Amino acid sequence: MRPILRRQSKWIVLFGKFQSKPIESKRLFSSTKLIDSEYGSFIPRHIGPSDQEQKEMLQTINFDSIDELIRATIPESIRLKKEIRLDKAINEPQILQRLKELADLNQTKWRSYIGMGYYNSNIPAPILRNIFENPGWTTPYTPYQAEIAQGRLESLLNFQTMVCDLTALDIANASLLDEGTAAAEAMQMCFRFHKEKRKKFLCSNNAHPQTIAIVKTRCEALGIEFNIFDGSRDVFDGRTPLSDFFNLEEYCGILVHYPDTNGNLDNLEPIVQLAKKTETIVAVATDLLTLTMVKPPGEYEQICDIAIGTAQRFGSYAILNASEIFICYLFLSLRIGIPLNYGGPHAAFLACRRYLTRLMPGRVVGLTKDAQGNQALRLALQTREQHIRRDKATSNICTAQALLANMSAMFAIYHGPQGLRSIAEQIHKKALYLAKQINDRGVNKVITYNPFDTLKIKVAVTKHVKARAEAVGINLRYYLDGKHVGVSLDETVTDQDLNDLIWVLEGEREEEHIVYPEDFLQNASGLLNGPIARKTSFLTHSLFNRYHSETNLIRYMKKLENKDISLVHSMIPLGSCTMKLNATTEMIPCSWPHFSDAHPYIPPSQAKGYQLMINELEQDLCELTGYDSVSFQPNSGAQGEYAGLRCIKAYLDSKNEHYRNICLIPVSAHGTNPASANMAGMRVEPVFVLKNGNIDKSHLQSKLDKFHEQIACLMITYPSTFGVFDEDIIEICEMIHKCGSAQVYLDGANMNAQLGLCRPGDYGSDVSHLNLHKTFCIPHGGGGPGMGPIAVKKHLAQFLPSHPIVPDDLLRVPKSFGTVSAAPWGSAAILPISWVYIKLMGTEGLRKSSEIAILNANYMLARLKNDYKVLYTGPNGTVAHEFILDCRDFKTTAGVEAMDIAKRLQDYGFHAPTVSFPVPNTLMIEPTESESKSELDRFCHALLSIREEIRDIENGKFDRVINPLRNAPHTQRFVCSSDYNLPYSREKAAFPAPYIQPETKIWPTVARIDDAYGDKNLSCTCPPVDETFKF
């Protein structure tokens, strides 16, 4: 957010205080030379069609120039009349040098033992190189087209199995955004289970502060009373029962931490027993590594109901890229493997008992069978999700953290159960040894009574400890009472680190190499010898026990990768998803240690490079959108929607207009919109659209007249999900603003059609979320990570998200509605991607990207419109950056639906467009600016060829049931089988176009998925060995 960091006479103000040494925020460093030729420019590397191809495409659509096309497409009333003021574009080597100078301002030589849910971790290099730095894993879309996503689905199933095994619960989802968000989702599960009648929720005061803040924020919007109980030892031991203070029959759920924020691991049995008597659901925030040593939530006599947490310390993000390891070791003395990432992204998890399955948020991978009876995987129970149930969905979640979940699963596979247990025991041993040395000296005292890795220490003189810590470059957790400090250890702690910590905390320091007493761990550990020691095995499936060599692991990862279609294979023309180029140069900085080694709660003075980058990115986004401030806290587009709506509600509440709680949403909106409005405590009222795709202004006016004093906002996507720029957008915004204090929320999902051409903040919008994983090039990762920062006009800025670790007065959000993410700046470690993209493109390049996105869409429209009905166009017959093909008539004429076309496209080597959204039985196509004319032609050829196949069905050449579309996709196993018995040739089945050759053929690894079978026979963990995947 702009208040975090701002320019003042070429000085940088960090959190309201001038630094002793000024840092000049130069938009271009003195060493940077501007590009002076197209050869050095990144713009033609990002834009797919060449200049000559653009001319040919313009001729096809009967326009003389790009400018003429834009004038025919975007209403004149909203087109920009001035130049966007961004830095002039620079080339790729220059931008990496520029960002390196910023990164060097982050003081990553400091060692952070702050904990609070964030730990240093060594990520195996094979996982880093072959997943995180591999576009085959980073550029696929969410696996809705399961037949060409079996690799990621298998990996996510492994993640779910890992979580279920370690928590001993029945079912887990395929990741959530972060631990705090997962806790809030667990709270909503409790609320829904009790039919929203029990409007109280209870939380331990020993939860992490950020978790408490997020759950409290979510409760406030839903009208749930949020109470905190004293999570002391007496309460957990049952000597002071919770029922003495709270009537648990009034509470839908209880959240406890295990271990808690102070490091204590308590026996959960007394609390769980109390809760069961009143049917109060128990949610446990836990740590997967800890669960290798302690009794999991699902093994208590009275089983805990939900477990949540983060898989961050399971190597869930990047360290150095391999080419930098030697350089960094030689010159910077950095340790490898500290995936803290200034807060994210990291994969969270949620597991629960089976009776709560259909209340779970997010995506769940499950087993099923394909059309030929073979075992297959797909996303299960999708009827719970926002794209189907809208405001009645279990959650608004769309993006999760699939890429990070896959990395965490591979971490567990690589180490196996014994390796994970060994890592845990080493960490635990070091924590116990540190506690012993501190207590033996007697100056300070460890008050954590049953630790795994974290110690809370009562110190004699805090200033003395802090001075020592700073002298050796160590960050500790300093409690607000000024009397306690916290230390959290991890797998990266060396003997030298441990000795430094002992010295800082005034313990008995040992020699350079620590020698532990014989049987020290067994004798000193209260966990291993106590009632909560883990007695059961975990990760027993052979999958977690056969890939411990690097050779085997790399082959396994490659085998999975080869099952999936990503942008390395072909265009992915998903409407409303913007699957554009994720350039290598944009991705490289995410592996730099100066970005990945920063704990989110370090002092701001140690993260000056991050703050400068965030500040510049905010200013650029404001310039591009016409807004005044940006918060980067939301971790996804859906979370951005929620945050933006909460800003609006907080603004209205500040004006004593609490009664405004209706959110008007067009029926064409993405399902996250109504789901987010519901989560924000608003009531959704639908607004109709006209046959041309525009908002029905008369219906909108009738809603405004009927609910005038209750209207909180209009939530609109622009250009619409129908692919058109509504000519009346200014008038529509004015209609809302005439309705008292009502606001306009403009969904930024389609911002890729507007860069440098028009700005939401200029034509009437008050707030938008921006999908950085769409318009600004963060890759989709097969279902996450994403980023959904919210941009607001000036009057809403003070209501933006706050954070309990970064005080409101320093963020200058004194009227904030609360907290949405565990980290102050969300998934900060992927922000360099968008920063680099904007700097490489500059004003001219970004405008060009939107122009070519519009050109590509209209070119494809022109090629397809004579064979497919186009559902919506603008008044001049053009579309924005996407368009919809109407497939509804084919059901009558040929028994073919849009999904059949989608599956047949797999035989042609393509991922399908968006199916049946926003109109059932249609295809929404968005080509993006990054695809060349030849690739557009190839995809159009595939659709035209499929249209001929539909005509063959209509003309009786093919049977209405047994035909290439209804049987699609065709697998290699079936086509090559002697059992092949279809009434059309193998060539027609598998090689239906001349450009599809055996050496380049992309084979789906399973036939068409049977979704109904999978949901009726739900299984969401790895199958037994004798049933393991045979494809």
From TrEMBL:
Catalytic reactions on record: N(6)-[(R)-lipoyl]-L-lysyl-[glycine-cleavage complex H protein] + glycine + H(+) = N(6)-[(R)-S(8)-aminomethyldihydrolipoyl]-L-lysyl-[glycine-cleavage complex H protein] + CO2
Stored Pfam families: GcvP2_C, GDC-P
One GO CC term on file: glycine cleavage complex
Domain Glycine dehydrogenase C-terminal stretches: 850-970
Keyword terms of this UniProt record: Mitochondrion, Oxidoreductase, Pyridoxal phosphate, Transit peptide
Entry keyword Coiled coil: no
InterPro entries recorded: GcvP, GDC-P_C, GDC-P_N, GDC_P, PyrdxlP-dep_Trfase, PyrdxlP-dep_Trfase_major, PyrdxlP-dep_Trfase_small
Enzyme class: oxidoreductase
EC assignment: 1.4.4.2
Residues forming coiled coils: none
One GO MF term attached to the UniProt entry: glycine dehydrogenase (decarboxylating) activity
Domain of life from the UniProt record: Eukaryota
Record text on subunit structure and interactions: The glycine cleavage system is composed of four proteins: P, T, L and H.
Entry function: The glycine cleavage system catalyzes the degradation of glycine.
Family (UniProt): Belongs to the GcvP family.
Protein name as catalogued: Glycine cleavage system P protein
Organism: Sarcoptes scabiei
